Amino acid sequence: VHRLPAIVRGDTIDRYWPTADGRLVEYDIDEVVYDEESSYQNIKILHSKQFGNILILSGDVNLAESDLAYTQAIMGSGKEDYADKEVLILGGDVLDNLKGECYQVLIEDCIPVLKRYAKEERMFDYVINDLTAVPISTSPEEDSTWEFLRMILDLSMKVLKPDGKYFTQGNCVNLTEALTLYEEQLGRLSCPVEFSKEVVCVPSYMELWVFYTIWKKRSEV
């Protein structure tokens, strides 16, 4: 006899959240830290005994305090030297101050900013895109997300130095079709690019996650 734990229904705390590839997992949630509707999405912060506080946006597990592996992966997994480099981060978090000696946080739509930088011919050594994961399908309701991703990719290439690198997340390693579609998009950009990918275990996701490094293809001499 294979005995399974009982599913808890009607609890005041929702502990069941799906993985990206559609499997139901139970988290050890013991507290609702925050739960509010913004103008754009539902924002939840739930406390897990294992993972600490978990940020959930419109039902999507985003990041937990345990997930240093995610941050390290989307920054190049410790292989890059950021000293004296120009870095553009799309998404990300806010520090204690919006402006410091070596950084500035802009709270605005990134697309107009990217277009402005491209027009000004401002270039960066690194562009880190932490806006959204790769869509999981090509259904009509996902079309706008794919268009958004293509626009961000093209604009990012315009502000990336010839020897620069673009870092971003992909999606769950099991979503091979979605990842293949994303890689096909990379072949349709305004400039030729090459890429590599890395598979990382992000603790609170309870699944392996793919991260991409993209760079402009060097011209053959």
TrEMBL record:
Taxonomy, superkingdom = Eukaryota
Keyword terms: Polyamine biosynthesis, Transferase
Q: Which GO terms describe its molecular function?
A: spermine synthase activity
Database matches in Pfam families: Spermine_synt_N, Spermine_synth
Residue ranges occupied by any PABS domain in the UniProt entry: 15-90, 91-216
One Gene Ontology term from the biological process aspect of the record: spermine biosynthetic process
Annotated active site: D130 (proton acceptor)
| Family membership noted in the UniProt record | Belongs to the spermidine/spermine synthase family.
Designated name of the protein: PABS domain-containing protein
Q: Which organism is it from?
A: Anolis carolinensis
Q: What is the lineage of its organism?
A: Eukaryota, Metazoa, Chordata, Craniata, Vertebrata
